[in-house]
Amino acid sequence: MGERESKSGDLLQGTLDMLVLKTLSRGGSMHGYAIAEFIQMTSDEVLRVEEGALYPALHRLELRGLLASEWGVSENNRRAKYYRLTAAGRKQLAAETQHWGKMAGAIARILEST
Question: Rounded distance, CA 14 to CA 42, Å?
Answer without folding.
Answer: 19
